[in-house]
Design a protein that fits this description.
152 residues; alpha/beta; five-stranded mixed β-sheet; 5 helices; 26% helix
Length: 152
């Protein structure tokens, strides 16, 4: 599950940015709001990032800058060092650093905070039906801090 996290100091500002609000939130500073993302989530969705950026800039009357890194660890390090204000990452980094991060939003699937992954095997493999059947086999993963792509 990919979730939006923020340093605790920025929680109040971001919380005030309601998706249903009609007025723009006054900005405490004029600099850009930096949001960390990884290619695991958005590398092929540049149009979504552009739409989201325009929406947030219109609502906040501030520039929005997406900071993309290769791994969740890199993004987590940036938010822990206050080099970005928000991060769109999975839940594991939050569990690791929950005393330093504040959960802001969780995606919903069919109205519930549910997560689903797919087990993909070669078409020639007609017998594998569960992850347990992959014990001892070689497989690929997406990120060492990913709930679905690595952690077990």
């Amino acid at each position: 599950m990919i979730t939006l996290f923020v340093r605790k100091a920025w929680f109040v500002l971001f919380l005030s940015l309601s998706l249903t609000a009609t007025a723009a939130v006054p900005a405490p500073t004029a600099g850009p709001i930096r949001i960390g993302v990884t290619p695991v989530f958005l590398s092929d969705q540049t149009s979504l990032l552009g739409e989201w950026q325009r929406y947030l800039q219109d609502r906040l009357q501030r520039p929005i800058r997406f900071v993309q890194r290769t791994t969740y660890k890199e993004i987590t390090d940036l938010i822990l060092k206050d080099e970005i204000e928000f991060a769109w990452i999975c839940g594991y980094p939050y569990l690791k650093f929950q005393h330093d991060l504040q959960l802001v939003a969780v995606p919903l699937y069919q109205g519930r905070p549910v997560y689903q992954s797919y087990l993909i095997v070669p078409a020639a493999d007609q017998t594998t039906r569960s992850i347990a059947q992959l014990r001892g086999k070689i497989f690929a993963f997406s990120d060492p801090d990913s709930n679905s792509g690595y952690l077990h």
